[in-house]
Structures are given as structure tokens and as C-alpha cells.
Amino acid sequence: NIKGFVFDLDGVIADTSVYHSKAWHQLADELGVQWSEDLANNLKGVSRMDSLELILKTGGKENDYTQEEKEKYAAKKNTNYLELLKGMNASAILPGISDFLTSLEEHDYKLSLASASKNSPLVLEQLGLAQYFKEKVDPSTLKHGKPDPEIFARGAEVLGLKPEECIGIEDAKVGVESINSAGETSIGIGDPNILNEADINFTSTTDLTLNNIQKAMEVGQL
Ligand code: G16
Ligand code: MG
């Protein structure tokens, strides 16, 4: 019996994954690392420092920089990202999400946020959606990033729910893995070939409705 929904932010609620990608692309160019669609996909949902490590590894440069230099580059990416966020408003909310959040509230589902982003409180404020997510997992308190189950397990915990009472929603492959290993039902938003481990797949957030979820699940589960 589903009682709560645990949301990823970037790429599910808002268009910000495009901004993350853009900011990492800029940094990859500066570091002389070849940018690719695959790299962009593999960075989704991955924490700031782990993202930098992945970019360096992709370019065979993982041993070229000190920890201090790496932190400087990660900070630089964040400055670029924050610059791109300036002026972002409710128009960056992905299609169908506002209606979906309203209908979840109407049906008394509990909502929490499981975003790896330390910027998520700021993003929610700018989108005007902060009131929906009083319960959030603070990513700075996590020992492990996605695909580890920790973040989605905590997303259920902050709602006082068991994992099996929750549906997790993600756009990243590592995010879907995190939901699944936490023991929640997973919804993947995006390319079904990439998100092939999701229990339910929708290609777009416009398909995210209680009706469609009900249809995709076994009768009576929602
Ligand atoms: C997000 C993005 C990632 C980003 C990470 C950390 O995760 O998908 O691209 O690297 O957060 O973000 P920040 O540098 O802002 O702390 P999610 O979990 O919301 O998709
Ligand atoms: Mg995401």
C-alpha cells in the first residue's frame, strides 16, 4: 500500500539537469576532457566531487591533480551552475509536475526530496515549490551517493514510512538503482533503454499521473 513519494529533483521536478550538464561541459573543456552524451548521462544524479572524479577518470587524468586543486575545480563548476540558475523561475518546472504534486497532496500522499544536490533548497525556492517538500534528505549527511540505497532509504524514513510504502521517482540510472535497492517501487523518467531497471518507465514527466501509475502497477497497490 503506497503512502508516500520520494522525489529526485534535477531532471524530474526541474529542467536543471541541463544546467548541471552545461556547467560540467564547460569544466571538461577547460580540463581537456572529451565531452560525450554517455558522459553526460553517467554524471546524472552523481554528487559534485564524484562527478569531477568521473570526468577526470574519463580523460585519464585522475592522478593529475591534488585534492586542493580538485576542490577548486568543483567550486568553479558550482559557480558556473549558480550563474546558470540565476533568473530561473517556475517556467523551469518540468511539464505535468505541478499538477502531479497538487494531486498527490489532494490524495494525502506524503512527499519527500532525495536529491544529491546541495543546491536543492535554493532551486525549490526559485521554482516556488518549497512548500511541497518540507521533508528533505540533507545530502551533506550521506555516507554514500547514488546508486547506494542510503538517500532513498532516508527519503522514506523522514516520512515515517517503510520503503515498501514508497514510490521513488528518478531520471538517472544510478538513482533508479538506489530506489530499487532501498526496497521502494521505482519510476524512471526518460529513455527506457537507459532506465531499464525501473519498475515503471515514463518517457516524459507529462505521463506522471496517479492514473498512469495505477495502470502500470498491479491492481489495488496504489
Ligand atoms: C543532482 C544532479 C547532479 C549533481 C548533483 C550534485 O542530483 O543530478 O548532476 O552533480 O545533484 O549537485 P550539487 O553540485 O548542486 O550539490 P539529483 O539527485 O537532484 O538528480
Ligand atoms: Mg536527477
From TrEMBL:
Which Enzyme Commission number(s) are listed? 5.4.2.6
Mention one GO biological process in which this protein takes part, according to its record: carbohydrate metabolic process
Name the CDD domains for this protein: HAD_BPGM (cd02598)
Which molecular-function annotation in GO is an example for this chain?
Answer: beta-phosphoglucomutase activity
Q: Where does the record place the site Important for catalytic activity and assists the phosphoryl transfer reaction to Asp8 by balancing charge and orienting the reacting groups?
A: S115, K146
Residues in coiled coil: none
> What name appears for this protein in its UniProt entry?
Beta-phosphoglucomutase
Q: Which organism is it from?
A: Companilactobacillus ginsenosidimutans
Query: What phylogenetic lineage does the species belong to?
Result: Bacteria, Bacillati, Bacillota, Bacilli, Lactobacillales
